[in-house]
Amino acid sequence: YPLRRQRQMCIRDSIDSIRELNCPKDYGRVVYQCINLGLHNASKQKLLSELLVSLSKGDNILNVDHYHTGFSLIMDQIEDIQMDIPHAFKHLGFFLGKAILNKDYDLSRMQAILEP
């Protein structure tokens, strides 16, 4: 639990910094970082997805646009990510599924990311 708490605090510190700097567009980078961490460490996916849900539902910080930015940033790098993580799409699907089930993201927005 100490490591879990450290990661949560680190992400919460990022959220606080974004608030202080008044840069709400950067919340999408928080989504990106959570997903990226989860892709690189599958055992942390549940924790990170729960953190994203708490930031969108509990704290009402993240919205659909932030999720869209986060998923877009991941998709921009997916080919490189797949070199290190062959099952990256499967892991990405975990986060996408959670976001859709929690109504934090709309699957129709993913089409804009996937179209060249």
Fold topology:
Layout: H1 2-21, H2 27-40, H3 45-58, H4 64-76, H5 78-84, H6 88-101, H7 107-114
Helix pairs in contact: 2-3, 2-4, 3-6, 4-7
Task: Give a verbal description of the structure.
The protein has 116 residues and is mainly α. The protein contains seven helices and no strands. It has helices at residues 2-21, 27-40, 45-58, 64-76, 78-84, 88-101, 107-114. Helix 2 (27-40) packs antiparallel against helix 3 (45-58), helix 2 crosses helix 4 and helix 4 (64-76) packs parallel to helix 7. The protein starts with a helix and ends with a helix.
What distance lies between the first and last C-alpha atoms, to the nearest angstrom? 42 Å
Count the strands?
Answer: 0
| Assembly form of the protein | single chain
Biggest sheet, in brief? none
Low-confidence stretches: none
SSE topology string: HHHHHHH
Number of helices: 7
Portion in beta strands: under 5%
> Globular, elongated, flat, extended or rod-shaped: what is the shape?
globular
Radius of gyration: 14 Å
Would you tell me the overall average pLDDT?
85
Task: Give the proportion of residues in helices.
Answer: over 70%
Class from secondary-structure proportions? mainly alpha
